[in-house]
Design goal:
The protein is of the alpha+beta class and 366 residues long. It has helices at 3-7, 11-49, 54-72, 74-91, 94-100, 105-146, 256-268, 275-302, 309-337, 342-362; strands at 154-163, 166-174, 179-189, 192-204, 209-221, 224-236. The chain has two domains: 9-148 and 274-362, no CATH class; 154-239, SH3 type barrels, CATH 2.30.30. It has a six-stranded antiparallel beta sheet with strand order 1-2-3-4-5-6, with no helix packed on it. Helix 4 packs antiparallel against helix 9 and helix 6 packs across helix 8 (275-302). The protein is elongated and about 90 Å long. The two termini are 18 Å apart. The relative contact order is 0.11.
Length: 366
């Protein structure tokens, strides 16, 4: 069979693709609908207590809640969809009929891979470019009507580099007023301190414009020290409060190019608390490949007709799904708190399940 003929979709391919994508959409509608009902039941009191309007609940929250969680658990929906419809085909002896006509399991996987590719592309595009801006609206709603106390309003003991030879320090910073206290800024020439500015407070205005109040500047010229004092001075610093006041959900609101740029800039400034952003960035790429890995596992498990029928296959699928979620959670936790590489943390589930996929693929019926 030539490569061109292999790429053409036969009637069987279209049949399986239709079943795959149809079951995938059915799984999304079913599970997300249940999730929405449970979420409404859990949060209805908070909606009413905080006077959330029906329009805000529907359009600001749930209209963005649905695509976010759909994309987040898309690989698992793929897995369950493959097991469900393939088990049904095997139970109806369709898989046996296909294999009996000389079509090997490798050829049978073609429409599965095409379907996984379609889902993976849409998942990557939506997760990297479309859903992050929608997350900003959803998270703003949650911080306003669901958990107002969960909004980050400041931090303390903040120190980082804003240039090759400049280091700044905030004793504490209040996001509600955009004001920092016990501020200092040190300039170096190689390892030699050339000037040090200290101030009682510093307030951010806009467009990198800052106002420093009650300040003192000490300049060092050899053995000579020059001291300048003042009550207020305007300056431009290439930083904004969001550069150093980081919330747990900030990475969800950034597109992939923004995440990449942010991670690079934070590394240059010497920030060490960017693991969550790195995990988010790598996970978006890893999720693309997880669709293919879980499709192979699902097809290999459910293509064989077993005495337990669909129930046994679905049970195995749910167990593996829980294991996949567990690996994702544990590896992410180790990356944030245990020093594991965010890249490895994002890819560990795929690495482990790739081994499972290869083993099951070799044992699949032919």
């Amino acid at each position: 069979m030539s490569n061109i003929e292999f790429l053409k979709l036969k009637r069987l391919d279209r049949y399986i693709i239709k079943k795959f994508l149809g079951t995938y959409i059915f799984m999304i509608v079913l599970i997300i609908s249940i999730a929405v009902v449970f979420d409404i039941n859990e949060k209805i009191d908070k909606f009413m207590t905080n006077n959330a309007s029906l329009q805000a609940i529907v359009f600001d929250y749930y209209l963005n809640f649905i695509p976010y969680y759909t994309n987040l658990f898309s690989p698992l929906f793929v897995f369950l969809a493959v097991i469900f419809f393939t088990s049904k085909m095997a139970n109806n002896s369709e898989i046996i009929a296909i294999l009996s006509n000389g079509i090997g399991f490798k050829r049978l996987m073609k429409p599965y891979m095409v379907s996984a590719l379609v889902i993976a592309v849409f998942s990557f595009v939506f997760g990297s470019y479309i859903i992050p801006p929608a997350n900003a609206t959803r998270i703003e709603f949650e911080q306003t009507y669901v958990n107002p106390r969960g909004k980050v309003t400041g931090d303390h003991d903040i120190q980082f580099r804003i240039g090759p030879q400049t280091i700044v320090y905030f004793g504490n910073f209040d996001m509600t007023t955009n004001t920092g206290y016990n501020f200092s800024m040190d300039h170096f020439d190689s390892l030699q301190l050339t000037s040090r500015l200290t101030a009682q407070s510093i307030r951010y205005d806009s467009a990198y414009h800052w106002t420093i109040s009650n300040y003192q500047i000490r300049r060092f010229e050899g053995l000579k020290e020059i001291i300048t004092k003042g009550t207020s001075i305007d300056t431009t610093l290439q930083i904004v409060p969001n550069d150093f006041i980081i919330a747990k959900t900030d990475q969800q609101m950034m597109t992939s190019p923004q995440l990449r740029s942010y991670i690079q800039s934070q590394k240059e400034r010497g920030f060490g608390n960017i693991q969550a952003f790195q995990i988010e960035y790598h996970s978006r790429i890893a999720s693309v490949f997880s669709a293919f890995i879980l499709t192979i596992i699902g097809a290999a498990i459910s293509a064989r007709k077993v005495k337990g029928g669909m129930g046994l296959n679905i049970g195995i699928g749910l167990a593996l799904s829980m294991a996949y979620i567990l690996f994702m959670t544990v590896s992410s936790t180790f990356a944030v708190k245990g020093g594991m590489s965010p890249f490895i943390a994002a890819w560990i589930p795929n690495i482990i399940f790739t081994g499972i996929a290869l083993y099951l693929y070799k044992r699949a019926p032919n």
